[in-house]
């Protein structure tokens, strides 16, 4: 057998441009890791309280060691995130940057999302093995995943439930005020259900998830608050019998990770009361790669899909749809599992996700 070797013209300018771009990639990766660390240590919050702090004063306010803090500040200053005044050795977080990096800025705190980079990087060795053997991963492989996911969801979903998300279903808020039965299938930390249980005391709320440790802390908090209209239960919703019946079932970023997404959706439909509504939020990308090229979040979403969503599904014996299974696939799956009508919404507060309203 004879193979022909194809010769490619080498463009020196293109190579130099790519090298310069990749220097930026390495630096931005470093910034993402240090931003995650700064968020967890409360450094942005401490910097935002008062401009012009020395590293010693900032260390005292944040409760960290000054020597390590100085190195972190080196990253923040050279990346242009924090301003530095060499004459008096003071550091200032510009308010325009603080508006996107502090807890007070929530739900716009982008530092929260940088934590996914570190969570994913922690399983690199495990994932390298899976690349070679085709196996999957389990939730226990991911340190802090539930914690980070809950914090991210608190910004995109929980903070916007009553103001932006629930209103896409006409009359839903009024029905919640009167009193209906609601469930969150794949509830994670359960913060969405707890927020609704507080807001609508006449309705009854149920959270179901495969991982009990995900919602344990929220369940204890709900019990401490005396929220008698909220309960949580461990349940594998890919192989469960129908639950309910419920007037409203929510599914926030849950379907594509399932062992059997279509079975999950069939159980969801069969758990709805006649006339019930399924409100689903999932990644708003396309299943067609070429349609995602202009999406500014696409590399991040594909990374999360590669490092978490796909191996988690495969680890349960699932198809490994991944986070970028696409709006098109989501709409098809909802129709194929028996939902009579499906509406797809894009909401101004959330550039990452699509919201689906499916009627029984």
From TrEMBL:
GO terms for molecular function: methyltransferase activity. SUPFAM superfamilies: S-adenosyl-L-methionine-dependent methyltransferases, Winged helix' DNA-binding domain. The keyword Chaperone does not apply. GO terms for biological process: methylation. Residues 29-103 form the S-adenosylmethionine-dependent methyltransferase Rv2258c-like winged HTH domain. Keywords: Methyltransferase, Transferase. Coiled coil: none annotated. Residues 177-295 form the Methyltransferase domain. Signal peptide: none annotated. It comes from the Bacteria. This is Methyltransferase domain-containing protein. It comes from Sedimentitalea todarodis.
